[in-house]
Structure of Exopolygalacturonase:
Amino acid sequence: MAMAKAMLSLLVHLHAALLFLPEPAGAAVYNVARYGASGDGAADSTRPFLRAWADACRSPRPATVYVPPGKYLVGRATFVGPCSSRAVTFSITGTLVAPAGYGWDGASGQWITFESVVGLTVSGGTLDGRGETLWACKQKQPRGHCPTGASSLTISNSRDVVVDGLKSVSSELFHVVVLQSRGVTVRRVTVDAPADSPNTDGIHIHKSMNVAVYDAAIRTGDDCVSVGPGNSNLWIERVACGPGHGISIGSLGKQQGMAVEAVQNVTVKTTRFTGTTNGLRIKTWGSSKRGFVRGVTFADSTMSGVDNPIIIDQHYCPDGGCAARQSSGIKISEVEYVNVRGSSSTPVAVSFDCSRSNPCSGIRLRDVRLTYQKSLQVAKAMSSCRNAEGSASGLVVPPSCL
Ligand SMILES: *[C@@H]1O[C@H](CO)[C@@H](O)[C@H](O)[C@H]1NC(C)=O
């Protein structure tokens, strides 16, 4: 027994030793330090990072770009594929810090971008977007006098990508963006930005397919996870959100033009919201833009002091000035809420405010139990329905208005 225990302990130690080897084995390794990157947080390491990537990407066998411990000042950097192998890893042990101030992204909206790569793993590391100065500008002049800012990590036009164990702090704009990509898994990612930092969405998914998010812990000033138009087959599971604006599908219908905006087949499962302004939200602008949201399951969710735990808002207009207040051209159907529990910090815990011209249909509530918690008192919550059709089953509190 003691022998077995000793063996086991040895194995565990060996395993740990392998995990913390200074450089990953088994692949050609391109250490950014050897390209002249400096971990002092002061010297600009953009070029060494790009050169290490170029060599790794050219390698016919699996290749790893390795970022050792330390702080690396990196400006706007786009790591472009396609690469020779379909197994390129970007393994970060240290921290990447963005340049000071703002505007250095040349209005590209992006800081670190992977573009047109097939078979990529981005693992570990911290990205510090240093968004503080831009947030201060936006807080002082909210009406668009400041630049938009840069999203910290963007996976663009890529396929078969894993982002694993990344920590993203203080992005100027969105922390992680999946854009026009397929087969992307984002797991064990943590996001940290203040509750009052503007537009700092945790994970934003746009025009993508087969994207999964697992085990995310997100504290930020905007949506924890936002699902833009053109997405299908999304799986979002085990997300802790707060502070933040919740998990949102939308907003849709802001852009004008003929293209239909669609979101289809989304599962959001096992989520926890703490002190967020919304929980599970679908939002569209009151505009004639056509489109649909169809086939969404929100399951197993815990709310703690959330302003709007369950909400469909088809008259979304955050900054006012939506003069027309047209009826939304986006049709929302087949949306299911299963096993949602906890407390709302406003009396209306369930709100379906749907389009007059395209009423919501097939909205289903099953086992929902939400109370209204006002300071220390627990009171009854309410439901509110406008242009919404559907059904309720199991125990549903507050009583359904569908
Ligand atoms: C819905 O998406 C999931 C992945 O999230 C996928 O496994 C499933 O096949 C999709 N369903 C349809 C009907 O496409």
About this structure: The helical segments are 2-19, 46-58, 132-140. Confidence is low (pLDDT under 50) at residues 1-5, 10-22.
